[in-house]
């Protein structure tokens, strides 16, 4: 995309957003979300899993100042996305009590921390596998059909945006620490397995009438504070091996997506690059008003996430706004806001 069409895209988007705010209608009928902890808003709260974030200090800067299950001090990137699209509420966690009746008509969130493209990643942590997320989505569709009838429901499914954000847990919480896996497969072959699962997922959504899908790339996994601590061999720098695996994965994601897009008529499939925007924040924090991108806010900032990031963690920062990372694996609300603005510019074709 050239600079001028990019500017034009942003301008049109701005006009569309203003219009949507004025008219009170969101730009698309619904927003549905799938994936891992980067986008989970509380589906893990009631599961028998250790991977949760429904206790302080998680959520301390959220709208309600309460933990919700989001792996963040405040809003996720997808929460900002929902706001930018003109929604007045966030898609509810599908397993929560909020996911009922009329609330379902503007979408739902099926994501589960420690899930991934590879179903066995989710099984390891008793999270909701992508296959099960799809099964819940089918159930969701039948509920929507019951409420508004088939025709209106079809318009919601085809017009709604469906976002998928996965892969980090497959690598960090499974492949790199699982000798069975990393002896059996090279990173390249493991990525191919994940791509197969991704293709199947997209084809299944398409078969269910979905026409607008966005998928995020892997972040620079080698720069996550916990990854530097675990895999950096004592160095304080991003782990090159992990970042190069992420880049190769992202290339495959891109070419697989282009294939899917050309084989499935009428499908709009956008690959959202979060690798470069997050890497920019990490390598040039002060350009964006941050001062800390190596250490996370929670605890010592080197490893903590989930249970290890809790109310008694020693060292937790008092103000996360200048930290790129909230915990050892997840960006802060301030970083999420910047990432979400980037997503918005990249996602114009899903709205028009
Ligand atoms: C995907 O490929 C297209 C065309 O080859 C390129 O313009 C785009 O930047 C790539 N996106 C990512 C996220 O790598
Ligand atoms: C955190 O710091 C920012 C400026 O860096 C300030 O605007 C904000 O009010 C502070 N938040 C809290 C909770 O102290």
From TrEMBL:
The keyword Signal applies. InterPro entries: GDSL, GDSL_lipolytic_enzyme, SGNH_hydro_sf, SGNH_plant_lipase-like. Residues 1-24 form the signal peptide. Keywords: Signal. It comes from the Eukaryota. One of its GO terms (molecular function) is hydrolase activity, acting on ester bonds. PANTHER family: GDSL ESTERASE/LIPASE EXL3 (PTHR45642), ZINC FINGER PROTEIN (PTHR45642:SF103). Belongs to the 'GDSL' lipolytic enzyme family. This is GDSL esterase/lipase. It comes from Nyssa sinensis.
């Amino acid at each position: 995309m050239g600079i001028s069409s990019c500017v034009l895209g942003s301008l049109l988007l701005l006009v569309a957003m203003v219009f949507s705010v004025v008219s009170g209608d969101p730009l698309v009928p619904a927003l549905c979300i799938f994936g891992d902890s980067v986008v989970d808003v509380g589906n893990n709260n009631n599961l028998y899993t250790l991977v949760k974030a429904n206790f302080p200090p998680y959520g301390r800067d959220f709208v309600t100042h309460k933990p919700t299950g989001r792996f963040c001090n405040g809003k996720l990137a997808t929460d900002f996305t929902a706001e930018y699209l003109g929604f007045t509420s966030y898609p509810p966690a599908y397993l929560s009590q909020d996911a009922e009746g009329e609330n379902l008509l503007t979408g739902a969130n099926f994501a589960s921390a420690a899930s991934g493209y590879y179903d066995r990643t989710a099984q390891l942590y008793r999270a909701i596998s992508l296959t099960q997320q799809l099964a819940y989505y089918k159930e969701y569709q039948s509920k929507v059909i019951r409420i508004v009838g088939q025709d209106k429901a079809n318009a919601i499914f085809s017009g709604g945006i469906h976002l998928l954000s996965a892969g980090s847990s497959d690598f960090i919480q499974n492949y790199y620490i699982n000798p069975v896996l990393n002896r059996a497969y090279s990173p390249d072959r493991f990525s191919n397995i994940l791509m197969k699962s991704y293709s199947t997922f997209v084809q299944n959504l398409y078969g269910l009438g979905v026409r607008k899908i966005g998928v995020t790339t892997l972040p620079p996994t080698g720069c996550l504070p916990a990854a530097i601590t675990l895999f950096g061999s004592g160095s304080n720098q991003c782990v090159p091996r992990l970042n190069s695996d992420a880049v190769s994965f992202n290339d495959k994601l891109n070419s697989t997506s282009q294939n899917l897009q050309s084989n499935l008529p009428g499908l709009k499939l956008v690959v959202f690059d979060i690798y470069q925007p997050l890497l920019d924040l990490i390598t040039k924090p002060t350009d964006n008003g941050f001062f800390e991108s190596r250490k996370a806010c929670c605890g010592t900032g080197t490893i903590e996430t989930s249970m290890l990031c809790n109310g008694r963690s020693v060292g937790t920062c008092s103000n996360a706004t200048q930290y790129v990372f909230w915990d050892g694996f997840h960006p802060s609300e301030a970083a999420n806001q910047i990432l979400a603005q980037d997503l918005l510019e990249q996602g114009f074709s899903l709205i028009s």
